[in-house]
Amino acid sequence: MNQEMIHMGKIITIGREFGSGGREVGKRLSDELGIAYYDNEIITEIAKRTELAEGYVQHVMENGPTALMPITIGRTFYMGADPVMEQNNAIYREQSLLVQELAEKSDCVIVGRSADYILRDKKPLRLFIYADMESRMERCRKRAPEQEHFTDKELRRHIQDVDKRRSKYYQFFTGQTWGEKLNYDLCINTSGANIEDLVKVIAKLVK
Length: 207
Known about the structure:
Layout: E1 11-16, H1 22-33, E2 36-38, H2 41-50, H3 54-63, E3 71-73, E4 76-78, H4 81-105, E5 108-111, H5 115-118, E6 125-130, H6 133-143, H7 152-174, E7 186-189, H8 195-206
Parallel strand pairs: 1-5, 1-6, 2-5, 6-7
Antiparallel strand pairs: 3-4
């Protein structure tokens, strides 16, 4: 753990590898501490503020900025690099403003959304959740819809692709390396671990 961290209230940010259980850690931790939890709600609110389709906002935040994807802004259709990149930047601006507003509103846990970087001046507890590939594959299979059938090779590639896209988005807008241990206060390996027990340990550090 980073010995220099000084936290203002209980603001916890969670970066995570896909399939590592980071979202579960975040939700359980917020319940354990009795504080707010934010994840996909941020995407919904950004879509409202930017008047962009929620699916498009999610696409940009999960796949990184693109200068090629056509979008609808209000009732006007755009195609081309400049307007699309302007909207990519608008999404990140609103993301930054919203994350800061949520952190100022009350103690909370924020999953993803580059919150560790956006809130760096507030000294949040910055967690990064990771796990070995086998554990991540097992977790993905347990939570997958019944109709979803990936071979091991396909699932492994999917997990790697999601992480690459998260890294691309994070690095593009923050200039930092996603998953770099020096950017976090605590990195947690959930391989073979009981999430509920891990959360209790983390909660003790925060209380």
